[in-house]
Design goal:
The complex is a heterodimer of chains A (268) and B (300).
Chain A lengths: L6 H23 L3 H6 L11 H8 L1 H34 E2 L3 H12 L3 H14 L6 H25 L3 H9 L4 H12 L1 H17 L2 H5 L8 H11 L4 H22 L3 H5 L5
Helix pairs in contact in A: 1-13, 3-13, 4-7, 4-10, 4-12, 5-7, 7-10, 10-13, 12-13
Chain B lengths: L3 E2 L3 H27 L1 E3 L5 E3 L3 H6 L5 H34 L5 H11 L6 H12 L5 H8 L10 H29 L3 H9 L4 H29 L3 H6 L11 H11 L3 H37 L3
Antiparallel strand pairs in B: 2-3
The chains are: A mainly alpha (268), B mainly alpha (300).
């Protein structure tokens, strides 16, 4: 791959630009509140773990992380399992209204969450799912399912159809072909799609906050409320923020070798 | 691509159809229902026909004025974002190291902002930009600029835009990088033999190959910036005044703040319609571009 002159400087500057605000947050999370407010220090002069200790010892704080992870995982499982057969259908067959259906799906990926906040609130209250992880997981399907279909369709199209035909000639039934042959072949695609589902469900807050009140409240929402109620506890806010970055960073680390392919959405 | 016609494929699509219809069509019906009515609280509703829509499109009314102003702000915001992020993303993708551990390191750092919850992104920049405790605000004020995003319109705008560049340029860069990776080395060797300049290589090889991913990038960035809510809300709360109130913020204000369900629903529908039209244009362009190139590439 050919690059441009001065590339080292450009990429270094950009990475510094990306890391600096994050460093500032981490830096602040280790400072005492008096140090944050009174002086401007580039690193914590009196490092403390008090903010982290407070988060891990208070259930109303750490249960938020569990709630968030709960609906994110649920959503990823639902999205991938319904998207897989559909991706296969879109990739292999032509059927009545297929193009319109695909566009309709994609258009849902683009629908603003703010539009749906209130109707979702009504809908999930009516069927008794309000304030459960299921409500958020199902609500997030509206943008994650189309995305998963889109990504997986690209990966399924990368599998030669001769493989399907050979399998059927060998007497594989459709479900067995699906489980035994197709899924292992597009395993990396499933990983990529799961990564994207995880990502978009993890970062979304508007719907997650609207659809929960006490039991299933996501960490991102607990953060805003607790802090504004107790005045501005900057150190605690920063520590909570740092903790929300960690799951994302871990996931990226695991998929780092697939990122480039994943962003090609399987078919550039 | 010779797909066979098979109507039974609908059975495979059915689960997706049901799940998405449940979360999309049902709520949309509620919105349509509300948009025709007026409410005075206590669950009493009155028929209002197309009254809200008329008001919405008439800038002299309160609702119309607010809608059109926030629409204008949002379009301007999306335009600025695209104008900065797309070229910058291409440059970053071209600057990526070629091999070794640096590639993985760069990719991980690039992807990091994408996986931070949106309100935490807002929090990060809220802290970072504050003149008293944030590095950025402190340094800017230290070198003599009177920077304060809470009270100054221009500063608030700059902060929101820089924050979005920080947050999303990586997406464009990663998409472009994926596009660049798919170019066979032979193309470059051919260009070298022909004595092509750096610029010619970019124009004749790299840019055409990035065409598709760039379209995806522009589409995603336009849509996401057009429905941006959380990040500017956390940083500026739509202020100072209304200067950074984008459509979604206005909508949530009307719907959940004032509980003006009729107005909010009408606004939602128009908002959705705009997005749908833009989405359709992009989709048509994208599928046409794909159809033209597909035979030449042998169905890749």
């Amino acid at each position: 791959m050919h690059s441009i002159p001065g590339r080292r400087i450009i990429i270094s500057l950009f990475l510094i630009f990306l890391l600096l605000p994050i460093y500032w947050l981490v830096n602040m999370s280790f400072k005492t509140n008096s140090e944050i407010v009174s002086t401007m220090t580039l690193w914590p002069h009196t490092p403390t773990l008090q903010h982290y200790r407070r988060i891990f010892s208070d259930e109303s704080w750490y249960s938020g992380y569990i709630n968030s992870l709960e609906y994110v995982v649920l959503n990823t499982i639902i999205s991938i399992s319904v998207a897989l057969p559909a991706a296969y259908a879109f990739s292999r067959y032509r059927f009545l209204g297929d193009k319109h259906l695909f566009f309709w799906l994609l258009s849902n990926r683009m629908a603003p969450a703010a539009v749906y906040a209130l109707p979702f609130f009504n809908l999930y209250s009516a069927i008794g799912l309000f304030d459960t992880p299921w409500a958020v997981a199902l609500a997030h399907c509206i943008f994650n399912v189309p995305l998963a279909v889109w990504i997986l369709e690209g990966f399924v199209s990368g599998v030669p159809r001769e493989i399907d035909e050979t399998a059927f000639l060998d007497g594989y039934s459709f479900p067995r072909f699906f489980m035994k042959i197709l899924i292992p072949l597009i395993a990396s695609g499933i990983g990529v799609a799961a990564f994207f589902c995880f990502m978009f469900s993890w970062v979304e807050l508007l719907l997650a906050r609207t659809l929960t009140s006490v039991q299933a409240k996501p960490i991102a929402a607990i953060m805003t409320r607790t802090v504004s109620a107790a005045g501005m506890d900057w150190g605690l806010l920063a520590a909570a923020g740092v903790l929300t970055i960690i799951p994302g960073a871990l996931v990226i680390w695991f998929v780092r070798n697939y990122i480039a392919r994943g962003f090609a959405l399987g078919r550039v | 691509m010779d797909k066979t016609v098979n109507q039974k494929a609908w059975f495979l699509v059915l689960p997706v159809f049901l799940v998405v219809a449940f979360s999309a069509v049902l709520p949309l019906m509620t919105v349509v229902n509300y948009s025709m009515q007026d409410t005075f609280g206590n669950n009493q509703f009155f028929w209002n026909g197309v009254g809200w829509f008329k008001e919405l499109l008439d800038p002299s009314t309160d609702l119309g004025g607010r809608f059109l102003a926030s629409l204008g702000r949002n379009l301007f915001f999306s335009f600025v974002i695209l104008a900065i992020e797309v070229p910058l993303g291409i440059v970053i993708a071209l600057s990526m190291p070629r091999q070794g551990w640096q590639v993985a390191a760069c990719l991980v750092i690039l992807a990091l902002p994408l996986l931070i919850p949106w309100n935490v992104v807002g929090t990060i920049w809220q802290i970072f930009g504050r003149p008293d405790i944030g590095l950025l605000g402190y340094v800017l004020n230290g070198i003599g600029l009177n920077y304060n995003y809470v009270s100054n319109d221009l500063d608030a705008w700059v902060t929101v835009i820089v924050m979005d560049v920080w947050h999303w340029t990586s997406l464009v860069a990663l998409l472009c990088y994926a596009g660049l990776k798919s170019i066979p080395e032979a193309y470059y060797q051919a260009a070298q033999i022909d004595g092509a300049s750096r610029w010619a290589v970019f124009k004749a090889i790299q840019l055409p190959k990035m065409n598709r991913v760039l379209l995806i990038a522009v589409l995603l960035r336009f849509m996401d910036s057009f429905m941006i809510y959380t990040e500017p809300f956390v940083v500026t709360g739509g202020g100072p005044g209304n200067s950074t109130t984008f459509i979604s913020i206005e909508l949530v204000k009307i719907a959940l703040g004032q509980f003006d369900l009729g107005k909010a629903a009408a606004l939602s529908l128009v908002y959705n319609l705009i997005i749908l039209i833009v989405c359709w244009i992009f989709y048509t362009v994208m599928t046409n571009a794909g159809a033209e190139r597909r035979p030449a590439e042998g169905g890749a």
